[in-house]
């Protein structure tokens, strides 16, 4: 004997296929999907729209767990294989077998005023799907089944769980002009006593024998069809609603056949009537004959190009081609296989499943196979399409030293990366460092990246100022890349009086520099390099002609080449205000003149502060 609990469930389901009913044991498996996942109310309405019907302006009111889709491999359970389901509790609770006599989910939600008026009892936990539709005929038909845990103990009582299909404000879910509910179709309370329209009722109650129908519901109606006059070719309104009556205990469901709202009258397969006018009744009508699994097609609809190490979006559509017209199949797994990688997604109300794969395979041409394995209700199908995996873009940034201590080796380093955040295997890539001194003499060094994409090599270099460029030529997985600009670094000399390197910003843009100037017994030894970003000008000086040091200031002069042309002179004045982290910061003033004495470059009339780097006066 069931008891009324503090929670309740009501479900309306819509399914696509034939209305075929049976009373024998079923080994079927029901699957459901509710609105807590990717499924949207619009997809529910679209799943219901059959031949000659289009929908728009879809809204849903109720708990997200109380509306969704269902699929059933055995059409004898509900009379159709798939569709939409609404409930006063969770739609998932419809799944059989019947192993509980009081299945309940109470959301604590409000009822629906139209249902309250219709039933004559206060309603709770309403689930309401509303939309506009345009038919191509003056009559529409809605195929449905009503199921509930209220049977049989609360039949003919005040606990009158109710649902309705309001077409342009008028309920068409009726029999003999009364609304379909617990009290208007049942097997009696107790079973066989004071039954109401028992020919339309199917008993499945644990308390009244062994359940023979593979569903949790204690009872359900046979397949029913509501018929309603509508405005042909114009916008009409549809409101599908279900709710608990008087309290929130014991779940109820309404299941609607996929493509079940149609302007073509369906055949009901258990009423001994030729409903669709083809001269055939029940099992003699092809609409009521099940001859094995329904044929299906699988179509790939995902991306066809992707770069190595990036994620590719995969999607496909599963369609029941035995239905008329073709209908989407929900609640089924599609497997996407791309090369040696695969993933699985479940179809929603529109028959669409999706997934993604992060490509770890080498670039090239591949085949993606979208496959459905098949089951008792639907035959297997697959689709194969071409996918191109392209090489990934790469980036390279210099991350080595810019100031090297006297007598120390120089560490050259660069980091290989990507333009996006999904990284592939960056190890074992060859990076070439090209190092140029002030005399324009170049040396090359190679290093291999580690797992983090960092390539480093330590090399001995004489004191001086150098420019370094790093380059990766690419491989089977990545396109090539190089550092955006040369990086200047200084190898300090033993006994050096003034050394420095870094960059500053002037009105024409960023200027990078590096220098060494050393007093010797025979004069001065010095090097000076400058790169001006604005006009891409370069100065290479390898001769120092004078040096004046006073405290933390120094000025020296020399000569060199401007953009490769000799005969230019320079003067550099610096102030060493401490370490690179000092509060005041070092300053520098640079003037370069051509052989005629005309200034071709200057940092300005007054010293400018370094933006990066350091100057040391020994």
Overview of the structural elements:
It comes from Cryobacterium gelidum. This is Ig-like domain repeat protein. Keywords: Signal. By secondary structure, the chain is mostly beta strands. It has 4 domains: 278 residues, no CATH class; 95 residues, Immunoglobulins (Immunoglobulin-like), CATH 2.60.40.10; 95 residues, Immunoglobulins (Immunoglobulin-like, Sandwich), CATH 2.60.40; 123 residues. Helices cover 3% and strands 47% of the residues. It is built from 3 helices and 44 strands. Strand 32 and strand 33 form a beta hairpin.
How would you summarize the topology of this molecule?
Blueprint: E1 10-15, E2 30-34, H1 41-48, E3 53-61, E4 67-72, H2 75-78, E5 82-87, H3 113-119, E6 123-135, E7 139-148, E8 162-167, E9 170-171, E10 174-175, E11 178-179, E12 201-203, E13 219-221, E14 224-229, E15 236-245, E16 252-262, E17 296-300, E18 305-307, E19 311-320, E20 327-328, E21 333-338, E22 341-346, E23 352-358, E24 364-372, E25 381-390, E26 395-398, E27 403-404, E28 410-417, E29 430-436, E30 442-448, E31 454-459, E32 464-472, E33 481-482, E34 487-491, E35 498-506, E36 509-520, E37 523-532, E38 537-550, E39 553-562, E40 565-575, E41 587-593, E42 599-602, E43 608-609, E44 612-617
Parallel strand pairs: 1-16, 18-25, 27-34
Antiparallel strand pairs: 1-5, 2-4, 3-6, 4-5, 5-16, 6-15, 7-13, 7-14, 7-16, 8-9, 8-15, 10-11, 12-13, 17-19, 19-20, 19-23, 21-22, 21-24, 24-25, 26-28, 28-31, 29-30, 29-32, 32-33, 32-34, 35-36, 35-44, 36-37, 37-38, 38-39, 39-40, 40-41, 41-42, 41-43
């Amino acid at each position: 004997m069931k008891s009324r609990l503090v929670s309740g469930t009501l479900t309306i389901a819509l399914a696509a296929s034939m209305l075929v009913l049976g009373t024998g044991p079923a080994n079927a498996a029901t699957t459901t999907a509710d609105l807590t996942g990717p499924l949207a109310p619009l997809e529910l309405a679209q799943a219901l729209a059959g031949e000659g019907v289009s929908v728009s302006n879809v809204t849903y009111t109720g708990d997200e767990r109380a509306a969704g889709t269902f699929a059933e491999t055995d059409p004898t359970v509900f009379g159709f294989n798939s569709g939409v389901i609404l409930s006063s509790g969770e739609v998932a609770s419809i799944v059989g077998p019947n192993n509980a006599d009081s299945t309940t989910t109470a959301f604590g939600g409000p009822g629906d005023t139209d249902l309250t008026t219709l039933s004559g009892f206060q309603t709770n936990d309403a689930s309401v799907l509303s939309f506009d539709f345009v038919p191509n005929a003056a009559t529409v038909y809605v195929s449905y089944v009503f199921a509930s845990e209220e049977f049989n103990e609360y039949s003919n009582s005040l606990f009158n769980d109710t649902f309705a299909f309001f077409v342009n404000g008028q309920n068409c879910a009726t029999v003999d002009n009364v609304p379909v509910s617990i009290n208007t179709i049942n097997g009696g309370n107790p079973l066989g006593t004071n039954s109401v329209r028992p020919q339309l009722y199917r008993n499945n109650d644990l308390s009244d024998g062994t359940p023979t129908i593979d569903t949790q519901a204690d009872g359900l109606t046979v397949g029913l069809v509501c018929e309603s006059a509508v405005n042909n070719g114009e916008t009409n309104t549809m409101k599908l609603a279900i709710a608990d009556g008087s309290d929130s205990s014991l779940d109820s469901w309404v299941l609607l056949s996929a493509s079940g709202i149609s302007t073509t009258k369906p055949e009901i397969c258990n009423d001994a009537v030729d409903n669709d006018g083809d001269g055939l009744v029940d099992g003699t009508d092809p609409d009521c004959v099940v001859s094995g699994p329904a044929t299906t097609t699988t179509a790939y609809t995902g991306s066809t190009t992707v770069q190595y190490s990036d994620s590719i979006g995969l999607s496909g559509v599963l369609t029941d081609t035995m239905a008329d017209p073709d209908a989407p199949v929900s609640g089924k797994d599609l497997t996407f296989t791309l090369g040696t990688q695969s993933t699985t997604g479940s179809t929603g109300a529109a028959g669409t499943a999706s997934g993604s794969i992060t490509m770890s395979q080498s670039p090239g041409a591949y085949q993606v196979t979208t496959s459905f394995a098949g089951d008792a209700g639907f035959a297997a199908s697959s689709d194969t399409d071409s996918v191109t995996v392209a090489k990934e873009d790469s980036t390279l940034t210099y991350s080595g030293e810019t100031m090297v201590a006297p007598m120390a080796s120089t560490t050259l380093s660069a980091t290989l990366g990507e333009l996006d955040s999904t990284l592939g295997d960056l190890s074992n890539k060859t990076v070439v460092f090209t190092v140029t001194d002030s005399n324009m003499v170049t040396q090359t060094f190679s290093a291999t990246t580690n797992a983090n994409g960092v390539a480093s090599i330590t090399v001995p270099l004489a004191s001086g100022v150098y420019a370094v460029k790093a380059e990766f030529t690419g491989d089977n997985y990545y396109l090539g890349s190089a550092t955006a600009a040369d990086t200047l670094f200084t190898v300090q000399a033993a006994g050096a009086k003034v050394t420095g390197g870094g960059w500053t910003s002037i009105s024409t843009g960023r200027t990078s520099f590096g220098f060494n100037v050393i007093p010797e017994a025979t004069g001065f030894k010095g090097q000076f390099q400058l790169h001006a970003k604005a006009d891409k000008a370069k100065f290479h000086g390898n001769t120092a002609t004078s040096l004046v040091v006073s405290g933390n200031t120094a000025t020296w002069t020399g000569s060199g080449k401007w953009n490769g042309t000799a005969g230019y002179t320079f003067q550099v004045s610096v102030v060493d205000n401490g370490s690179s982290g000092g509060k005041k910061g070092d300053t520098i003033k640079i003037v370069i003149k051509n052989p005629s004495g005309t200034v071709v470059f200057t940092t300005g009339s007054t010293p400018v502060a370094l933006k990066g780097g350091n100057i040391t006066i020994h």
